[in-house]
Design brief:
- This protein is mostly helical and 368 residues long.
- It folds into two domains: 2-289, Alpha/alpha barrel (Glycosyltransferase); 300-367, no CATH class.
- Helices cover 46% and strands 10% of the residues.
- The protein has 13 helices and nine strands.
- The strands form four sheets. It has a three-stranded antiparallel β-sheet with strand order 3-4-5, with no helix packed on it.
- It starts with a helix and ends with a strand.
- The structure holds cobalamin.
- Cobalamin is lined by residues 78, 80-81, 84, 135-136, 138-139, 173-174, 178, 180-181, 224-225, 227-228, 231, 268, 271, 274.
């Protein structure tokens, strides 16, 4: 049945461009904020990548924490975890081949490409010996993807081994076909279609994966289950030149994902991180086409006073002890430490000159 489905879809192959595959909703924004909040504990690279793809304004301090974490733990990370750090740092315009915490001559830098390449070599060796990787095929896919995004050399033989896994229907965990795993592999093979060889083997693996993903689509648009649909959508968007338009209507899937988001199925930031980017037409392949405008950090300097924190300096500008915080034109009834900002509210620090006439606005800073 599955073979017949793949065959029919292959015959019906009519390339087309995807349309109407992006929609911003208040629920998407809520989940985006939930992801952003989760970074404060310890930034997860998957959540960070997702927020970067969504164009969410982040503070650069998270990049420093990610760099510290990856440099200190690189050897202990699994191939997939290291790959997610690589993607996060690429999305931050960092040179992953030479990651440094400071620019003094003493820091020799860490080559994450080299480390990841070694981890992938172990995965491939395990596949060749035991027909299963050290971790799982999802992480093997992430490793190929992250190496490709760094334009790091990948052994032709390793690509062939992974393609063979695909062609022999071994993209699974346990006995069942894994849509999530196929999706990550499809993103990796799409990426490798650009500059890697053997070209025909890479293309055939991508076609097979796309067809398998399409065969996992339910009538309403969910692909696999709720939690695989986001990554599957990413795979189909990235491989849209292989998607027959009669077979997949992206907007049905988008609608289902948005409905699940509204129903509260994505309160786990990592699960949300896989699903949100494709709702805005973005995939992991876009990590290297983002601009790096960081939010200014450490904006407010506070001094301790008996009622609580008193803001003495904003954005490097020292106050005159005459500052006021207003909500619209109404002075806040509490200090900033106690002020509970509501969702989506923007704080504007507006520097105005007090004068008997109209106040002149010198500078305006916006913060979310
Ligand atoms: C591989 C995999 C597994 C492997 C993990 C072990 C291995 N050999 O690698 C196995 C087969 C054991 C597994 C089991 C389960 N999995 Co699983 N798994 C995955 C998969 C495909 C990749 C995970 C991965 O490597 N990520 C990349 C690395 C870098 O990130 P990581 O955080 O280090 O990965 C670890 C965790 O993801 C953890 N893990 C795997 N599955 C689950 C599930 C839950 C609920 C938790 C908390 C952790 C967890 O194992 C990974 C390897 O150490 C994901 C797909 C996806 N979209 O994320 C599904 C996925 C995470 N699994 C899922 C589920 C539902 C399960 C099960 C609950 C299934 C079940 N009914 O028994 C069990 C949980 C078992 C348990 N002990 O708690 C769901 C989670 C949905 C959700 N809302 O949280 C996903 C998203 C698949 C899906 N689309 O439904 N899984």
């Amino acid at each position: 049945m599955a073979i017949l489905c793949v065959l029919l879809l292959t015959l019906a192959l009519f390339p087309y461009g995807l349309q109407g595959c992006e929609r911003w909703t208040p629920e998407v924004e809520k989940v985006e904020q939930l992801m952003a909040k989760s970074l404060d504990d310890d930034p997860d690279p998957s959540v960070f990548v997702s927020l970067r793809l969504l164009n969410y304004t982040l503070e650069q301090k998270f990049v420093t924490i990610l760099k510290k974490n990856v440099i200190n733990n690189a050897l202990d990370l699994t191939s997939g975890q290291l790959s997610l750090y690589v993607l996060a740092l690429i999305a931050s315009c960092e040179n992953t081949m030479n990651v440094k915490l400071d620019n003094s001559g003493t820091d020799r830098g860490t080559n994450l490409g080299e480390l990841l390449s070694k981890k992938l070599a172990q995965e491939i060796k395990s596949i060749e010996m035991y027909e299963y990787p050290v971790t799982n095929y999802y992480q093997v896919g992430l490793s190929f993807l992250a190496l490709c995004k760094q334009s790091y050399p990948i052994n032709k033989r390793d690509i062939k081994t992974f393609a063979q896994v695909v062609m022999r229907n071994r993209i699974s965990y346990g006995p069942a076909f894994s849509v999530d795993t196929a999706a990550i592999a499809a993103l990796a093979f799409r990426c490798m279609q650009q500059d890697y060889k053997p070209a025909d083997i890479i293309r055939n693996a991508a076609i097979k994966l796309v067809m398998q993903i399409l065969c996992a689509k339910g009538t309403r648009g969910i692909i696999g289950n709720t939690y695989s649909t986001g990554v599957a959508m990413q795979a189909l968007i990235a491989n849209q030149q292989l998607v027959p338009f009669q077979v997949w209507n992206c907007s049905n899937t988008l609608q289902e994902v948005l409905a699940e988001i509204s129903a509260g199925s994505f309160m786990n930031p990592v699960m949300a991180s896989q699903a949100l980017p494709p709702t805005q037409g973005k995939t992991y392949l876009d990590v290297n086409s983002l601009s790096c405008n960081w939010a200014v950090g450490h904006l407010f300097t506070k001094v301790k006073t008996s009622p609580g924190a008193f803001i003495s300096c904003i954005g490097g500008i020292v106050g005159s002890k005459k500052e006021q915080f207003l909500n619209a034109t109404v002075p806040l009834p509490v200090g900033v430490a106690e002020y509970d900002s509501s969702n989506g509210e923007t704080i504007i620090a507006r520097l105005t000159k007090y004068s008997s006439k109209k106040s002149a606005i010198n500078r305006e800073l916006n913060y979310h």
